[in-house]
Specification:
This protein is mostly helical and 160 residues long. Helices cover 79% and strands 0% of the residues. It has seven helices and no strands. Helix 1 runs antiparallel to helix 2, helix 1 runs parallel beside helix 3 and helix 4 crosses helix 7. The mean pLDDT is 83.
């Protein structure tokens, strides 16, 4: 196999894995760092995998690295909370969501569904557009108008 073709396969798979990691919630820079670590590991192992074995190996190593980073960050957070949480004098602020609930109740079903799909279910604009079979720009405009309407209604409830 030609080196250039093998490199192109590696780059294509790397871009695919970076996209996969970003879809899993990893920041773009972290996903690129993970992929760089995977390449370093590939070079250090000094093996040449066939293209049919390359993709699964790269995915497995990238996911292992991602899980390691996630566990480390979780452990650091737990240690900080354990050690310094007792010194915190700041009381958690419990937000009053009654005005939001009232405002959401005033919206029509379509507007409420847009807000819930986008913010609660964390659906992307293109996924919502596919659900309603409309253009992405229509969803963006409708979300903007709905947010503006919600803000206006909530400010009216707070002034009561």
């Amino acid at each position: 196999m030609e080196i250039n073709r093998y490199e192109k396969i590696l780059v294509d798979i790397a871009n695919e894995i970076v996209g996969f990691l970003i879809n899993q919630g990893v920041e773009k820079s972290d996903a690129q760092d993970i992929m760089q670590d995977v390449f370093v590991k590939l070079l250090q192992t000094d093996i040449i995998l066939t293209p049919d074995k390359l993709r699964p190996w790269l995915y497995r190593v990238a996911l292992s690295r991602f899980y390691d980073i996630y566990r480390r960050q979780k452990r650091y957070r737990d240690i900080l909370l354990e050690q310094y949480g007792q010194y915190s004098e700041v009381e958690p602020i419990l937000a009053d969501y009654s005005s939001l609930q009232r405002a959401l109740g005033q919206l029509n079903d379509y507007q409420r569904a847009l807000i819930i799909l986008h913010y609660d279910d964390r659906k992307r604009i293109n996924a919502i557009a596919a659900i309603y079979n409309v253009s992405e720009s229509k969803i963006k405009v409708d979300l903007y108008r709905t947010r503006k309407q919600l803000k206006h209604m909530m400010m009216g409830y707070e002034n009561e």
